[in-house]
Write a sequence for this structure.
């Protein structure tokens, strides 16, 4: 797993900031994270409790969501290998969390607490830049998603999801994808069948 861990972290930095870490930079960053393993359906963060950790997925998957007053679950984010996930609102403000984070599979992660995050950002412009770009990308993705949700029909939203996140389709339960897209599971089932029929008729 150590080789996988190193490769995932290095690739995440390369993808995010456009260049690789030196050995010294990698060792400094890695020493500020600790490894944890979680069973399926483990809770990583809860609504109304301060979330002091951000998680980098080494294996497995997780998602974040909130439940409205009617009891409906609204999915905000999915994360598989090579993704970061947290309740950013709570993590950066110190206020009670607004999302629940839960694993979908047995999951192994690297964990960065808020104190270590602040320390490495204060001592290295490189890591401050890295986390700023992560935040920037997450904000841009959220704005894009909201615009699509409010302007396009369910089928187009699903097709866009499959284009942007093809690696999620067979890993994430369909009812959670439906929640993420803001549609009913039955509607997603009909859309998937329609799309499959179109593909087989080509």
């Amino acid at each position: 797993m150590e080789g996988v861990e190193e490769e995932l972290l290095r690739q995440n930095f390369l993808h995010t900031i456009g260049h690789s870490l030196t050995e010294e930079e990698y060792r400094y960053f890695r020493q500020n994270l600790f490894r944890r393993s979680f069973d399926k359906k483990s809770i990583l963060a809860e609504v109304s409790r301060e979330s002091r950790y951000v998680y980098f997925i080494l294996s497995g998957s997780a998602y974040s969501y909130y439940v409205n007053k009617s009891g409906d679950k609204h999915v905000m984010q999915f994360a598989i290998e090579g993704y970061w996930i947290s309740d950013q609102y709570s993590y950066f403000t110190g206020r009670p969390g607004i999302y629940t984070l839960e694993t979908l599979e047995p999951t192994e992660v690297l964990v960065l607490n808020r104190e270590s995050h602040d320390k490495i950002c204060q001592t290295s412009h490189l890591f401050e830049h890295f986390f700023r770009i992560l935040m920037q990308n997450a904000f841009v993705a959220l704005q894009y998603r909201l615009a699509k949700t409010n302007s396009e029909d369910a089928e187009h939203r699903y097709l866009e999801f499959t284009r942007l996140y093809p690696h999620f389709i067979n890993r994430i339960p369909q009812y959670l994808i439906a929640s993420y897209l803001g549609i009913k599971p039955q509607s997603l089932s009909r859309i998937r069948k329609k799309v499959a029929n179109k593909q087989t008729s080509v």
